[in-house]
Amino acid sequence: MDKSESEAAPGWLETRLPLCAVWRTQWRDHLVPANLTLVWSFGVLVAVALGVLTLSGIWLGFAYVPTTQGAALSIERYTRAVNFGWLIRDLHRDGATMLFGVVFIELFRGIYYGSYRNRRELAWIIEVVRFFAFLAVGFFGFAMTGGAVADAAVTIMAAHIAAIPLFGSALAHWFLGGFMVGSATAPRLAMAHETIGFLVLLIALLGFMASRAAPPANPDGIAVPDPRDMVPQSAYAGKLFTAFMIFALIFAVIVAFAPGLGQPAGMSLTSPMAMPVQPVPPWYLLGFHGLARAGQSAGGGTLLTVAALVLLGALPWLDQGIVASGRYRPLYAGFVIVLAIDWVVLSVAAAQPATGIWPAVIDIATIYVFVHFIVITPLVTMLERAHPVPARIARRTA
Amino acid sequence: MRRLLFAAAVALTALGLGQSARAETRTPQSFRFQSLFGTYNKASLQVGFAVYQADCASCHGLSLVHYRDLAHLGLSPQDIAAIVSHIKVQKGVDPAGKPVLAPAMARDAFKSPFPDEAAAEKKFHGAIPPDLSLIERGHRDGADFVFSLLMGYRAAPPNVTMPPHHFYNIAYPGGLIAMAPPLKPGSVTLADGKKPDVQAMAHDVAEFLAWTADPTLDQRKAVGLRIIIFLLILGALGGFAIRAGRRT
C-alpha cells in the first residue's frame, strides 16, 4: 500500500473503523530493535497455531458427541467416514504438538534473554497465565477424547483438584459432575476445553498489548535501544516467512508420517483389553505429570505444580540483576541450558513406570527445577560478573 | 539460544534411544506399510480379509468398518455386492415385533457376530472376543503383535497350570489366552487355487487389521508428500522473492 495514498484520504470505513491505522501502527511503521533473531518470530507462530487449532476444533466440534460412549467413537467415525476428516483431526491433534513446541521454546527464550525485565513483568506474567491456560486446554482436550486412559487421567486430576484446601472437594465434584467419572463428565470436559480455548485468544491479545506497552525486548537485552537501531517490524517479513515455512514443514511431516506423535494411543477408542498399565498424558503435559508424581500424594502434586508455575511468573523478582540477556551472562546461560535439559529428563522419566531408577530421576529433576528458580537464579544474579553490554546493537539482523 | 535448543534436542534424542524395551516374545515381521513411504499391499489386504471372513468373523466384530470400505482393498462394486448378498442383517422389526432379516447393503457396517455382549459371554465361558477394528492401535507395533499372537501358540510349560478354556501363547501378556488357535490351514483358497500356509495367513490378516485400525494411511502419506513438496517449492520461491526485494 502506498503511504501517501492510504494516509491522505481515509475512506468512509477507515474514518469509522480505523483498521488500516492499526495495520500501519502495529506492523508497517511499528519500530522494533534491529537485532531480532528467528526465535522472535514465535509470537506469530503461536497465532498461526491458534488459528489452525480454532478452525479445526470448530469442525471437529460439528462431529463430536459428548457422551461416555460417543466421545471416542464420534471422532473415530469422523476420521473414517468424512472426506479428509483424518486431516482435520490430525491438524488439531498435531496442531497441539506444534503449539506447545513453539510455546516451550518461547518460554525458554524469555528465561534465557531475560525478556521479563524493563517494565515487562506484567507481559511475562500474562505469558505464564497463557501457558497455564494452554496446559488446561491441552489437558481437557486429551481428557475429552474418552477411553480408559483419558478416564483414568480425569480421575487423577479430580484427586489433585480435591486436594486444594477449603473448596477443593466441591470444585472436584463440580469438575466431574458427580463423585466419579460418569455420564455428566464428558460434556463438562468438552465445554471446559472450548471455553478456555476461546479465553486463551483473549489472554493472548492482552499479552500482546502488554508487550507492546513496554520497551521491546531483544537478544542483547538492551533496555532502551538507540533510535538509530530501530527498524519497522515489516523489515522482518523475510524472517517471519522463514519461521513460518519451517513451522509448516515440520507440521506437515508430523501429520503425514507421524500423526499423534507423542500422544498416547489411548487417546482414541481402543479395546479395553489393550489398555496400558499406567496412564501417560500427551508429551506437553509430561513435565507437570512428573512434578505431580514427585509430590507423592494428590496434595503434594498440586502444590508442586502450582508452585512451579508461580515461580516461573515470579522470575522478574527472582532475577534482579542489571544485565538481562544470557548472551552476556555465561554462567546464567549455562544454568538455563541445564534447566531445559532437566525439563526434558523430567518429561521422559514421567512417562516411565514407577520402577528401577525412574522415581529417583523424577525426584532429582523436580528438585532441580525448584533449585534453579529459588537458589540458582538469585544467587547467580548476585555473584556473576557479566560481560559488558554494548550501548548500541552490535549485530544487526534486519 | 542456539546452544539451548541444541542441548535440549540432544538430551531428548539420548533419552529416546535409551528407553527400555518391554519384554514380550515377538516375531518381528516386515510389512511394507511400516516403512516411511510404504503403502498397504492390496493383494495382501484381500487375502487378509478372506482370512478374517473364514477364521475370525465368527467371533470378532469389525464395528468401525463398512462393506463399502472394501473398495480400498481393490474390490469392485460388483465384488462388494456379491459379498454383502450372502450376509443377512436385521433391518427393523415386523408388526409382530420379530426381527426382519434382509441382505446387507454396501453402506452397512460389518455385521457383529453376536446380538450383544451377554450372548458372547455365555458362548465363550465369560471371555468376550474383542472388536478387532482398532486392536492393532492398542498395541505397540500392532501388526507385529497380531502376527506374533497368531503364531505364538505353544504347549504349556510344565510349571504353568492351565485354567479351563485357556491356551498357552508366548506373545500374549501373561501367556494365558482364552482364544483357541484360530487359523486353520486350508480355510482360504487364493485366486490361483493355492492354499496359503498358516504363517502367510497370519501375515496377511495382520496387514488387514492394520488397515482396519488406520484405513487412511495410504491417502495420508500421498497427500502429505504432496503438501511437503508444495511447501518446499513455496519456500524456495518465497526465498528468491525476498532476496530480489532486498536488492532493489
TrEMBL record, chain A:
<keyword id="KW-0679">Respiratory chain</keyword>
<keyword id="KW-0812">Transmembrane</keyword>
<keyword id="KW-1133">Transmembrane helix</keyword>
<feature type="transmembrane region" description="Helical">
    <location>
        <begin position="154"/>
        <end position="176"/>
    </location>
</feature>
<feature type="transmembrane region" description="Helical">
    <location>
        <begin position="236"/>
        <end position="258"/>
    </location>
</feature>
<feature type="transmembrane region" description="Helical">
    <location>
        <begin position="122"/>
        <end position="142"/>
    </location>
</feature>
<protein>
    <recommendedName>
        <fullName>Cytochrome b</fullName>
    </recommendedName>
</protein>
<feature type="domain" description="Cytochrome b/b6 C-terminal region profile">
    <location>
        <begin position="223"/>
        <end position="391"/>
    </location>
</feature>
<dbReference type="Pfam" id="PF00033">
    <property type="entry name" value="Cytochrome_B"/>
</dbReference>
<keyword id="KW-0249">Electron transport</keyword>
<dbReference type="InterPro" id="IPR027387">
    <property type="entry name" value="Cytb/b6-like_sf"/>
</dbReference>
<keyword id="KW-0813">Transport</keyword>
<keyword id="KW-0349">Heme</keyword>
<feature type="transmembrane region" description="Helical">
    <location>
        <begin position="298"/>
        <end position="318"/>
    </location>
</feature>
<feature type="transmembrane region" description="Helical">
    <location>
        <begin position="357"/>
        <end position="383"/>
    </location>
</feature>
<feature type="domain" description="Cytochrome b/b6 N-terminal region profile">
    <location>
        <begin position="9"/>
        <end position="220"/>
    </location>
</feature>
<feature type="transmembrane region" description="Helical">
    <location>
        <begin position="196"/>
        <end position="215"/>
    </location>
</feature>
<feature type="transmembrane region" description="Helical">
    <location>
        <begin position="38"/>
        <end position="65"/>
    </location>
</feature>
<keyword id="KW-0479">Metal-binding</keyword>
<feature type="transmembrane region" description="Helical">
    <location>
        <begin position="330"/>
        <end position="351"/>
    </location>
</feature>
<comment type="similarity">
    <text>Belongs to the cytochrome b family.</text>
</comment>
<comment type="function">
    <text>Component of the ubiquinol-cytochrome c reductase complex (complex III or cytochrome b-c1 complex), which is a respiratory chain that generates an electrochemical potential coupled to ATP synthesis.</text>
</comment>
UniProtKB/TrEMBL annotation, chain B:
<keyword id="KW-0479">Metal-binding</keyword>
<feature type="signal peptide">
    <location>
        <begin position="1"/>
        <end position="23"/>
    </location>
</feature>
<keyword id="KW-0349">Heme</keyword>
<dbReference type="InterPro" id="IPR002326">
    <property type="entry name" value="Cyt_c1"/>
</dbReference>
<keyword id="KW-0812">Transmembrane</keyword>
<keyword id="KW-1133">Transmembrane helix</keyword>
<keyword id="KW-0472">Membrane</keyword>
<protein>
    <recommendedName>
        <fullName>Cytochrome c1</fullName>
    </recommendedName>
</protein>
<dbReference type="Pfam" id="PF02167">
    <property type="entry name" value="Cytochrom_C1"/>
</dbReference>
<feature type="transmembrane region" description="Helical">
    <location>
        <begin position="223"/>
        <end position="242"/>
    </location>
</feature>
<dbReference type="InterPro" id="IPR009056">
    <property type="entry name" value="Cyt_c-like_dom"/>
</dbReference>
<keyword id="KW-0408">Iron</keyword>
<dbReference type="InterPro" id="IPR036909">
    <property type="entry name" value="Cyt_c-like_dom_sf"/>
</dbReference>
<keyword id="KW-0732">Signal</keyword>
<feature type="domain" description="Cytochrome c">
    <location>
        <begin position="43"/>
        <end position="216"/>
    </location>
</feature>
